[in-house]
Amino acid sequence: MKKFSKIIALLLCLSMVAGFAACGGTEDPTQPATDAISDGNADDALTDGNAADDDDNADAAFDFSEVGQYTADNTEYFIGATGPLTGDTSSYGISVQQGAQLAVDEINAAGGLNGVLFKFDMKDDKSTAADASTGYDALYEAGMQISIGSVTSGSCESFASRADEDGVFFITPSASAASVIEASDYAFRVCFGDPDQGILAAEELSANFENIGAIYDNSDPYSTGIYDAFKAKMAELNVSYIEQSFDAENNRDFSTQIEALKDCDAIFLPIYYTEAGLIAKTCVSKGCDALLFGCDGLDGVAGQIDETVTNTIKYITPFDVNSEDELVVDFVAAYTDKYGVAPDQFAADGYDAIYAIYNAMLKAGVDNVTVAPEVLGDAVVAAITAEDFVLKGLTGEMTWDTTGACTKVPVIVTLGE
């Protein structure tokens, strides 16, 4: 259960900073690159880029000279993370890494935070809890002060337990299991929570189809978290469906599952894109033309299938690469120019996570590059949960409450459209 013993006092102090910042300053130098930083505060405290210009006002918010037991001699604000950069889920980790780095590059090119630049580093955790823990240790020892956590839920649970011990604030782009943000007072997320996606999937499918199936991974916290919410909502709606499952040891052959579901009109897949691609190909071999409906884990499935797959594939996402929104158009162009490929949802989530940290630090009046993680963590939690903190990002207009959960509107996209 989250504890916020310091937050009430901090919120009062931060509101003082917001009031001072709204009265003056210059236009935030990062705004030409993206409006993701322009709506962090309803009274424009985040748009002027100088929330800490007045030293007395900054000190009123929080004494960032207190470094406690922290001895890292940082010359840049150090944001750390872990994610799968190799292995079956590496697409997620690489996308988050690239999206986050693009955001850091933009912020630094515009002068950083009141003249101080940011440093970003992601360690390869191969989607394992053990490697996430090892990666966390390496980052912390190297001077990590704040973080975007881990990419996948199992890894991020491990990361969160370590972060809680050290008071390191993190906002994960994509670890959606409810347990992730329950594990630490300093744990937040950009993505939807698993229950939210499961409930939305149940409502969408039950409203449009009669013969519904579901395939989930009973060994994975991401999949089981979404599926449990889906199952509960289907029961509430009094809608029956056919259930099939698999585990990490049996995730290459889906003949049995598709044979059982081949007459379904729609199949729910709260799983990752690698298995979803195999399932789509199995549908072809079994003559199953059901709609395949997934969650954000299906982003990346396009690279797993070919023209032989004729099933319609839809999935829940907060990001549509084909959106005509100016923020998205500019991001897609910059990302494609830098990396040579179009971004996916995970790249957008990583980008938004960095800007959430930047805006929260700006609002908090951070003015000490060697600030200890626990000091920074308390201040950022107070800033990001303030009633007037709103971030307009690539993945929607976002607010956060003291549970660490993010509120925004989801989108259902159809692959190929």
Overview of the structural elements:
- By secondary structure, the protein is of the alpha/beta class.
- It has two domains: 7-192 and 325-409, 3-Layer(aba) Sandwich (Rossmann fold), CATH 3.40.50; 194-317, Rossmann fold, CATH 3.40.50.
- Helices cover 42% and strands 15% of the residues.
- It is built from 13 helices and 14 strands.
- It has helices at residues 7-22, 55-61, 90-109, 129-141, 153-166, 178-182, 194-208, 221-237, 255-261, 273-286, 326-339, 345-364, 373-384; strands spanning 77-83, 118-124, 146-150, 170-172, 187-189, 212-217, 242-246, 266-269, 291-294, 313-317, 391-393, 396-400, 406-407, 411-414.
- The strands form four sheets. It has a six-stranded mixed β-sheet with strand order 7-6-8-9-10-14, sandwiched between helices. It has a three-stranded parallel β-sheet with strand order 2-1-3.
- Helix 10 (273-286) links the parallel strand 8 and strand 9 (291-294).
- Helix 1 runs antiparallel to helix 2 (55-61).
- The longest helix has 20 residues, at 90-109.
- The protein is elongated, with a radius of gyration of 22 Å.
- It starts with 6 loop residues before the first helix and ends with a strand.
- Residues 3-60 have low confidence and may be disordered.
